[in-house]
Design goal:
Methylamine Dehydrogenase, Chain H, about 475 residues, alpha+beta, five-stranded antiparallel sheet, 2 domains
Length: about 475
């Protein structure tokens, strides 16, 4: 056999060896993906994230791969950043030596008990799973917004905090919560807002009530300020009624407050400014010729909308002054407004079933969203995502840049009166069908849970990571608490 043929045969054998190695690596990745999908019970949307990552990696490119090539040499973003990889985290810094972020995704989909089970692998992993640093990193990845709110200069027990938030997350998914029902108003609850431990509610009985959530009390007494009409599932601390505000000549339809002032809009066409310390009305603002339907407070500016179709901007620097008005089409009442502080764009839901997008700085109407078939009762805008709730029973999600509807959340059997969403893909909607529904924007085909308890339409709601507070035409508010 000639020297040339021998050289050719050696090259063929070498290429066959490289091919077998590549096929082996592909089979390994297929097996890993099947484990991720089946054992971790991933949703289709989550699995769809993993597959493109593998397909785009250099491991699956058509070029030859040397037998000595290692997966860890591929470009990937690890779960642990450089400053995270201390000596104690080394056992997990290359969990499976997978490409394209698979290690981070796998750990992020593990629940608390599964991560704890890693400690049974060997002594090194046991030591790692007992370190607070591991739980801090996992907490930061799983709940970035909550992590940013943590006071990192204080001692934090990250494992305990991770476990608690994991339980809260599961309670949201399962719709399991304790419920506290509050009474105090004699009419429909038309609006509510809470921040930290303070909540204020408004009603069509013309009053507003200030509450303190979960106050620290030494003992229960018969004081009339302690209002706890009904409790379900477990004992909880009471909610304390602090003060009432009276002064409007008709139903209160909207409210907003900061640390020192409360603003309320009413059927009497006025906005009242209240001092939260003295509980005295400091000023009455007149500028609308119809019901004041919605208020939005932003730094030293107050934005109001009305059934007269106008939107007014008030300066709060010194004595409140009307500085600008956006004139709408007569008869096209504005039911709800929401400002995105980043873009300075204002979203307004209208009676004619459209949603208007205004530029607050210039006063120009940028865009009109068309898609609902009935009144738009509730809106929210956050950067490039707009969300609306309507009398057509739908919650619509819009792309602010293109003005197109990208998603419909269908499930309510009557008008959607109030909505809220957050950056964790969570959505809560309240409806005339007496229910609240929770949604996950990553799997919008159906709601995650349906919360039933009100005996009439739900007109107001607000939620945070631990709870939802809702107000209804049954004259009560309910606190749906998902925290353990």
């Amino acid at each position: 056999m000639s020297e040339g043929k021998l050289e050719l045969k050696e090259r063929v054998l070498k290429l066959e060896s490289q091919l077998k190695k590549a096929q082996s690596d592909v089979c390994l990745l297929k097996a890993i993906l099947n484990v991720v999908r089946d054992d971790l019970k991933l949703k289709h949307e989550q699995f769809d994230v993993l597959y493109p990552c593998v397909m785009s990696s250099s491991l699956l490119e058509s070029r030859p791969m040397a037998p000595s090539a290692k997966i860890e040499n591929l470009d990937k973003k690890p779960l642990f950043e450089t400053n995270d990889c201390t000596e104690e985290l080394k056992p997990l810094s290359r969990v499976y030596d997978l490409p394209c972020d698979l290690d981070r995704l796998i750990l992020s989909f593990c629940d608390f008990h599964e991560i704890c089970a890693l400690s049974q692998v060997n002594r090194s992993w046991m030591k790692t799973c007992r370190t607070s640093k591991l739980w801090q990193v996992l907490f930061r990845f799983r709940w970035p917004r909550l992590y940013r709110e943590e006071k990192l200069d204080e001692e934090v027990f990250w494992k305990t905090k991770f476990k608690r938030n994991w339980k809260i997350e599961n309670a949201w998914k399962d719709g399991k919560c304790s419920i506290v029902t509050l009474g105090g108003h004699t009419g429909t609850i038309t609006g509510l807002q809470f921040k930290d431990s303070m909540m204020i509610s408004g009603s069509d009985d013309g009053s507003l009530i200030m509450w303190r959530l979960n106050p620290v009390v030494d003992q229960m007494d018969d004081d009339s300020t302690v209002v706890l009409m009904q409790q379900h599932h477990k004992q909880v601390r009471p909610v304390e009624r602090m003060e009432s505000f009276h002064g409007h000549g008709g139903p209160v339809w909207s409210l907003a407050f900061d640390s020192t002032r409360l603003f309320s809009g009413s059927y009497d066409n006025t906005i009242k400014v209240w001092d939260l310390r003295s509980h005295v009305c400091q000023a009455t603002l007149r500028g609308h010729n119809g019901w004041v339907s919605s208020l939005f407070l932003f730094h030293d500016a107050l934005i109001s909308s009305s059934w007269d179709a106008d939107i007014n901007v008030w300066s709060l620097s010194g004595r409140p002054t009307l500085t600008r008005s956006f004139r709408g089409i007569r008869g096209n009442a504005v039911y709800n407004i929401h400002l995105d502080p980043w873009s300075r764009k204002l979203l307004a839901g209208c009676r004619n079933s459209t949603v208007n997008l205004w530029d607050v700085e210039t006063g120009v109407l940028d865009f009109v969203f068309v898609g609902h078939s009935k009144f738009v009762y509730s809106v929210q805008l956050d950067k490039d995502i707009a969300m609306t709730g309507s009398g057509d029973k739908l919650v619509k999600v819009w792309d602010r840049r293109s003005g197109t509807c990208v998603m419909d959340l269908a499930g309510h059997s009557d008008s959607v009166m109030c909505i809220q969403f957050d950056e964790d893909h969570k959505v809560v909607s309240g409806s005339y069908d007496k229910t609240l529904r929770t949604w996950d924007l990553r799997c919008p085909a159906e709601s995650i849970s349906v919360l039933e308890g009100h005996s009439s339409a739900v007109f107001a709601l607000q939620f945070d990571h631990e709870k939802i507070i809702s107000g209804s035409a049954d004259k009560t508010m309910k606190i749906w608490n998902f925290a353990p």
